[in-house]
Design goal:
The protein is of the alpha+beta class and 151 residues long. Helix 2 runs parallel beside helix 4 and helix 3 packs antiparallel against helix 4. 48% of the residues lie in helices and 14% in strands. It is elongated.
Length: 151
């Protein structure tokens, strides 16, 4: 069972070749058919709508899938910014709990990992990030841990 299908190409001819390859693979089962139709694109004046059965899918710049914003360039920078802001808001919501002096360090670390870190890193296994983005995530984690344990 196919949950989703991404067909990429550098130009219309490559997309059509990829479409033909997919159609040949699926022709024996008669379940899936893919059609590429030229319409508009910001870069070249053309874009490609995809037709599967009787449904057309338009190319978009970005969309949200399972809480993650995906872009056509596979850029994760804006998504990481959004996640860091959400993690910061989560930290501030549990700040009083984490500053409570009767909690052990291990318990504070567990609270950090369960609440804050999970919000920031949800879906990160699908990210293709750069060293700069990885550094931003590490800086955020270190900053929150410094706030929890103090100077």
């Amino acid at each position: 069972m196919i949950d989703g299908l991404v067909c990429e190409g550098k130009n219309a001819a490559e997309l059509i070749r990829n479409e033909n390859c997919i159609n040949q693979s699926c022709s024996s089962s008669k379940i899936l058919s893919v059609s590429v139709h030229a319409s508009r694109d910001q870069n070249s004046g053309k874009s490609h709508n995809i037709k599967i059965d009787n449904s057309f899918f338009e190319r978009v710049e970005q969309f949200k899938y399972l809480g993650t914003t995906l872009t056509y360039q596979n850029s994760i920078t804006e998504e990481i910014k959004r996640r860091l802001m959400s993690g910061n808001a989560c930290y501030h919501s549990v700040q009083n709990l984490l500053s409570f002096s009767l909690l052990t360090k291990n318990l504070k670390i567990k609270i950090y990992k369960i609440t804050i870190l999970r919000i920031v890193l949800y879906g990160c296994e699908t990210w293709s990030h750069t060293l700069r983005e990885e550094h931003r995530l590490r800086v955020f984690g270190n900053r929150v841990l410094r706030r929890i344990f103090g100077p």
